[in-house]
Design a protein that fits this description.
Blueprint (H helix, E strand, L loop, with lengths): L1 H16 L2 H7 L7 H14 L15 H29 L4 H10 L4 H29 L6 H25 L6 H9 L6
Helix pairs in contact: 4-6, 6-7
Length: 190
């Protein structure tokens, strides 16, 4: 009971001393408002003809800048590719062997096959090696400008090596299937 009475008396005393009229009457603005600051900022930018946001073309391109953009691009492309491959496996009729036979029956030339292999393997290798490079940066190593360029060249070379090796070691493409198709088709359908 005493606690309730003490709380009631304390509130009554605080209300008397901290009435809204006293607080408002003694309030002094500490500085400019956010709206005034924003208006001043935009007026200054309009007066100096500054663009809303600097375009990427105002920067000089460097290897680390390009590699950063490509790392993000390959990450997006690989994510989209894996997702589309998974969806196509669910939605497209047939199995992997039938699709592989379809590609083989197209009788694509070696140049196109090697280009397609390079286009599939290079983004994966690049993103993997550049990801390892980022992990090394997280350890605080290789962050000086000369080291950035050196590690960038190492990543590019390490990404190209498996692709070129795959093209060199691939068995030659024979066109036996194509010859079979040509022999079995009637003369008027050739």
């Amino acid at each position: 009971m005493a606690a309730l009475l003490l709380r009631h008396v304390g509130r009554h005393c605080l209300r008397a001393h901290l009435s809204p009229q006293l607080c408002i009457r003694n309030a002094v603005p500490l500085g400019t408002t956010a709206k005034e600051e924003m208006e001043r900022f935009w007026n200054k930018n309009i007066g100096s003809n500054r663009p809303m946001s600097p375009h990427i073309t105002i920067y000089s391109w460097s290897l680390p800048m390009v590699m950063s953009i490509c790392h993000r691009g390959t990450g997006i492309a690989l994510s989209a590719g894996v997702s589309l491959f998974g969806l196509s496996a669910l939605l497209v009729p047939g199995n992997f062997e039938s699709h592989l036979e379809l590609v083989k029956s197209l009788c694509l030339g070696p140049a196109l096959i090697h280009t397609a292999k390079f286009a599939l393997v290079f983004p994966l290798m690049y993103h993997t090696w550049n990801g390892i490079r980022h992990l090394i940066w997280d350890l605080g190593k290789g962050l000086k400008i000369p080291q950035l360029y050196q590690s960038g060249v190492v990543v590019l070379e390490a990404s190209k090596a498996p692709c070129i090796g795959d093209c060199i070691t691939s068995p030659p493409v024979h066109h036996k299937r194509r010859m079979f198709l040509i022999r079995t088709l009637p003369e008027n359908q050739l």
